[in-house]
Design brief:
The complex is a heterodimer of chains A (about 375) and B (about 250). Chain A is α/β, with parallel strands linked by helices and about 375 residues long. Chain A has 16 helices and eight strands. In chain A, helix 9 runs antiparallel to helix 10, helix 9 packs antiparallel against helix 11 and helix 14 packs across helix 15. By secondary structure, chain B is an alpha/beta fold. Chain B has a domain of about 90 residues: ATPase, nucleotide binding domain (Nucleotidyltransferase, domain 5), CATH 3.30.420. In chain B, strands 3-2-1-4-5 form a five-stranded mixed beta sheet. In chain B, helix 7 links the parallel strand 9 and strand 10. In chain B, helix 6 packs across helix 7. Chain B starts with a strand and ends with a helix. Classes of the chains: A alpha/beta (about 375), B alpha/beta (about 250). Chains A and B meet through helix 16 of A and helix 2 and strand 8 of B. Bound molecules: iron/sulfur cluster (2 copies). The site of one iron/sulfur cluster has 10 residues of chain A, from loops.
Amino acid sequence: METLALPKSFDEFVDARKAGFLKVKEYVENGGHLVGMFCSYTPLELFDAAGVSVVGLCGTSNEPIADAEKVLPKNLCPLIKSSYGFAYTEKCPYTYFCDFIVGETTCDGKKKMFELLNDIKETYVLHLPQSQKRDYAKEIWYQEIKLLKEYMEERYGIEITDEKLREAARKRNELRKTQMELYALQGAVPPAMKATEVMSTLAQGMFNFGVDAQHASYKAKVDAAKEALAGGAKPVDEKAKRILLTGCPSTGVIQKVGMTIENNGGVIVCLDDCGGERTQKMLVDENADDILRAISDRYLEIHCSVMTTNEGRIANTREMCQKYKVDGVVEMVLQACHTFNVESTLMQNMCDDEGIPYMKLETDYSTTDSGQIETRLAAFIEML
Amino acid sequence: MYQVGIDIGSSAAKAAVISEGEVIKTILLDTGFSSRKVADTIYATLEAEGITKENAKYVATGYGRISVPYADDVITEITCHGKGSYFLFGENGTIIDIGGQDTKGISLKNGRVMKFIMNDKCSAGTGKFLEVMTNRLGLTPQELSALARKGKEITISSMCTVFAESEVISLIGKETPREDIAFGVIESVVNKVVSLLAQVPNDQYFLTGGLCEDIYIVERLAKALNAPVKTTPLARFAGAIGAAIAC
Ligand code: SF4
Ligand code: SF4
């Protein structure tokens, strides 16, 4: 068994963080492999099929941002700064112990950050097309996925067979279906659980080693909610206003935005960021002849503001508004996220068209604007 | 039964008492250091006049709304300004509330808030900006407006209060007439407010908050908006009145 070095400032870490480091260290020392990723476009089945755990490294905390700003410009999305900051300060065990990181050419900030991240930890960047529209877009993405597959085969000295890919696709699809169940419970009338619970479950689930463990953690949440429901539990006030939360990835603002909505007379019935229903409802065609192509096609379909044009996202949100009987749409834009910020006009137009009140919040991971955010969210909910 | 609305803002605390659909009393105090303390003072003042928990309901609003322990309910100032303004003006329009630490535009239709906007983490276009500049010029707010009326076109270009203050200091250093500086200061606030209001345009506007008795500012706003701006001395209490209505 190889022994791995701990970060330089390990002794100063709080106990929970130390425990996290030791857990991941043990996993890797016992032969486990870990790859870090950042984006919904990452083809997870490839890692599952290679027997490698894949963990989301999106920074969701303000903590390492001040350090990240020693290298990165201040005027950058907090998700990018936080992600880089965790690598830079060696405070995230997954970033620290992973074999390498997979990034994609999504928004400019992230794309360029990966160049710097590569100096700390090897970063493999998938070249995502800027649009699904061209005839050859699918082919580009397929070639990219294939290159990554070959890279992994070479790196780990393995063969990623079609059987393994098919098996991985099947398991991921099952996981997606469970996640959809979670969303259905959350969006029920009245909701079977608070969205902030769902957000936390999903965020924690990401840190399991392997798809099975992740699936089990979601399944446990679904079962617990169903059981509570059968027992007559009503975790959410029936009069709570039903909110759809859209915009940038929201895990970093569970407290500031999620909790605030749910403590001020609202309940989030639909999580409409890229980790939500609009992405999870897309399944890989498990029975396709060319399974690798089925995987690459499924991922390219994802609607994100980095794509031009991106009508699919707005169309999906419209559908979600109807499906979940939404009273109001809150769009959360992380500071300096140009793609979602610009696209917010289209989201607002759609809401106007549907007659659903809409509010945009631009914020970051700090607490400096918590008071204002609370007033704005509370007033918005009172208005509904 | 009395309905008492309490609006604890960042610089002023206001209370309004409604009985049988009429505003029968208002109170205006400095918020000072402690929202809690000023809330207690308001309670004591009303109690001395026979308005107590026994015969009154209380709703608190404003940024210090959570510091009113005797409040029966808590509502944001946006909803309250909406209700209060509808009570005072009874028409559709956009409310302009220039507060101590933030400025809001609230569009009102049939008495309901349709949309609102607030300035972001910045004091440009707020009461704070005016306060800092008035102090720097050694004037009272009334004097500032009176001087500005006689001033000539100068522009304060910095949006940030701290930089704008340096700009004012350097204008003073250059012996620029105080009238002109006063003009520039008020224009700066008016322009910032108007640019904020672009997102909630309307045929007419209502000015609430501490500046509602400043006729010069009302005139400048109306000119810049190219639309009527209505106000009344009671509009200073619009938030408190709205809270009282919500009781
Ligand atoms: S928002 Fe877009 S770029 Fe960001 S993680 Fe999601 S899919 Fe990727
Ligand atoms: S939130 Fe926006 S700016 Fe931040 S990483 Fe995602 S797409 Fe890029």
